[in-house]
Specification:
Blueprint: H1 2-9, E1 14-15, E2 18-19, E3 23-24, E4 35-42, E5 52-55, E6 76-82, E7 88-96, E8 101-111, E9 121-123, E10 136-138, E11 142-147, E12 149-159, E13 165-171, E14 188-189, E15 213-214, H2 216-219, E16 238-243, H3 255-269, E17 279-281, E18 287-289, E19 311-316, H4 327-342, E20 351-356, E21 366-371, E22 373-375, H5 386-402
Parallel strand pairs: 15-18, 16-19, 16-22, 17-19
Antiparallel strand pairs: 1-2, 3-14, 4-13, 5-6, 6-12, 7-10, 7-11, 7-13, 8-9, 8-12, 17-18, 20-21
Helix pairs in contact: 4-5
Length: 405
């Protein structure tokens, strides 16, 4: 832990006005192969034979925070229980993409072998990539940990009912790098050249050093899964702040597998071609490279449907619907945000004008003013980044601003 703290506090010197990169972690030797087992659920009007349609959820199963806006006490729900499955660690439900589908809650509980059922977890809609052909709509992914049995309840609470529903059971695979202690002691130095912004916004003129970022190879990204060629904005005007809605008690060794699961779900299941977030931060204060294309460039992500252009998406690994962010996580998020925005002379404590949509919040293309570090819920119909994330944002903005010199 001390080594992680030291890593977050180690900054490079600013030489001749350019940002020098700090040491970058050593790459894992091989990409990790992930796999997926799909179970067809059918439609709400015609569920598959083993799927039961009911009014209301199973006892103890919650609606997602997004789904709680419903005024229906017993929303139409598809329910399925399956045991003796191929082992998996992450799940999600997808459906034929339809922008009219705007209120779906997915609740799951799992078990492994003879163990007891886990507590229920619930999640709402994941956002969409911009203009990605053949993409599927769906819930955000849910990290369950190793399991071989599942009970799932899919409720439609508003908007059009989704069609062609499929339950995705994802095995993120394993790698010796998952429990590699060297992840805490980066040893390989890589110089990342400064990217000169195409234009500068009014704002700060200082710069912040690049924090230590664990590259895609470190979490075992398999490049063969990518069907998306990196595309770029001329600059980054704002950073969208997310949470991934995973357990908050994961171990340091589980983080690469969690990211691989999200990668598979975004790239393969959703058909976005790559992981949606530009960066992810774990509870131990480590920053991980997400979407491919260069950590120091304005890569267009798939994290805030309709508003991916000229934004960067950073996701906190955990569920902060109510919980508070750990201090190490807030420190790391502020370090990344300060570095990313200062490259384009954008203040972390200002506002930006974005044009985007349509998406889950806007029925047509709109121009909106947002904070330069804005919560995902401000541009999409979602609770993300949760109330804990909302409470953390003012302090993160303030800390990011004061990291810029």
């Amino acid at each position: 832990m001390n080594r992680v703290l030291a890593g977050l506090g180690a900054f490079s010197l600013i030489v001749a006005g350019a940002l020098a990169a700090p040491p970058v972690v050593q790459a894992a030797p091989k990409p990790v192969v992930t796999s997926e087992n799909d179970v067809e659920l059918g439609d709400f009007a015609k569920p598959k034979p083993e799927v039961m349609r009911a009014e209301g959820l199973p006892d103890g199963a919650p609606l997602s925070t997004d789904g709680m806006v419903t005024k229906t006490a017993k929303p139409p729900t598809l329910r399925l229980t399956r045991t003796n499955l191929k082992p998996f660690s992450m799940v999600g439900v997808t459906w034929q993409y339809d922008s009219a589908v705007d209120g779906v809650s997915v609740a799951v509980r799992t078990k492994s072998g003879a163990s007891e059922w886990s507590t229920w977890q619930a999640e709402g809609l994941d956002d969409a990539a911009d203009d990605q052909p053949d993409q599927r709509g769906g819930s955000a992914p849910i990290w369950t940990g190793p399991a071989d049995a599942i009970e799932v309840a899919v409720s439609t609470v508003s908007g059009a009912a989704p069609r062609d529903l499929r339950l995705a059971l994802i095995d993120p695979g394993t790698s010796p790098a998952d429990a590699d202690d060297s992840l805490a002691t980066p040893a390989v130095s890589e110089q990342v050249p400064e990217v000169v912004p195409a234009r500068a916004e009014k704002g700060i003129r200082g710069s912040a050093p690049m924090p230590r970022i664990y590259r895609r190879q470190s979490w075992g990204a398999d490049p063969r899964m990518m069907t998306w060629k990196p595309t770029y904005s001329p600059m980054v005007k704002a950073v969208a702040f997310h949470h991934t809605v995973n357990s908050n008690t994961y171990t340091a060794a589980e983080v690469p597998a969690i990211i691989r699961g999200i990668y598979h779900y975004h790239a393969i299941t959703h058909k976005w071609g790559d992981i949606g977030y530009n960066a992810l931060v774990d509870r131990f204060g480590r920053i991980w490279e997400g979407r491919a294309g260069g950590v120091n460039r304005a890569v267009i992500g798939a994290h805030a449907g309709g508003f991916n252009y000229e934004t960067s998406g950073i996701a906190m690994i955990g569920d902060f619907a109510t919980a508070n962010l750990p201090q190490l996580m807030k420190n790391a998020a502020a370090a990344f945000i300060a570095w990313k925005l200062s490259m384009y002379h954008v203040s972390p404590n200002s506002t930006a004008t974005l044009t985007g949509g349509p998406n889950t919040l806007y029925s047509a293309r709109v121009t909106v003013k947002v904070p330069t570090v804005f919560p995902h819920r401000q541009t999409s119909n979602t609770d993300c980044p949760g109330e804990g994330g909302m409470r953390a944002l003012p302090g993160i903005r303030y800390q990011a601003l004061h990291r810029i010199h």
